[in-house]
Design brief:
Length: 155
């Protein structure tokens, strides 16, 4: 099973709906299938939770097309805590449909979009699926979606 949680803030100068659209541009969730929560007064907290790997397919494809697999892999590996990892995405780039990775929250002036993923017993397989190891810019071994899903199904 995979557990995905996306979290960000909408500050008073931002529209919560537009921030939610930025999230959806890079992590296309489905409001009828996934949990979406907006809370808070002046600063809104936006949280999207899902257990569907489909939410991450666009991110997976963007890492490849933008040729940022090595950076994504390094960030994912450096943020592993038990069965969970996280990655930060630049909120303004996401609003424009682009994936720009951040090492810290401060790299995105209005705060980053935090994507946390928990895959009990298979976090390394998840990282291999999302951002496989490369050598000289080429993927060494690609873990297909079917292979990844069969691995986590057996856990």
């Amino acid at each position: 099973m995979i557990y995905i949680e996306v979290w960000t803030r909408a500050f008073p100068s931002e529209s919560a709906e537009r921030v939610l659209m930025a999230v959806k541009n890079v992590i296309p969730f489905d409001e009828s299938l996934d949990d979406v929560e907006i809370s808070g007064e002046s600063v809104k907290e936006i949280r999207v939770s899902s257990n569907r790997h489909e939410c991450l397919i666009k991110l997976r494809d963007s890492l490849r097309s933008n040729k940022i697999l090595d950076t994504a892999r390094m960030l994912l590996k450096s943020n592993v805590h038990g069965d969970e990892t996280e990655i930060l995405l630049h909120k303004q780039a996401a609003f424009n449909g682009r994936v720009h990775l951040c090492e810290t929250e401060e790299e995105s002036p209005l705060g980053a979009i935090k994507v946390s993923i928990r895959v009990p017993g298979a976090i390394n397989a998840f990282i291999d699926w999302l951002a496989p190891k490369t050598e000289k810019g080429r993927i060494v071994k690609e873990l297909s979606t079917e292979e990844f899903l069969s691995m986590i199904k057996d856990l």
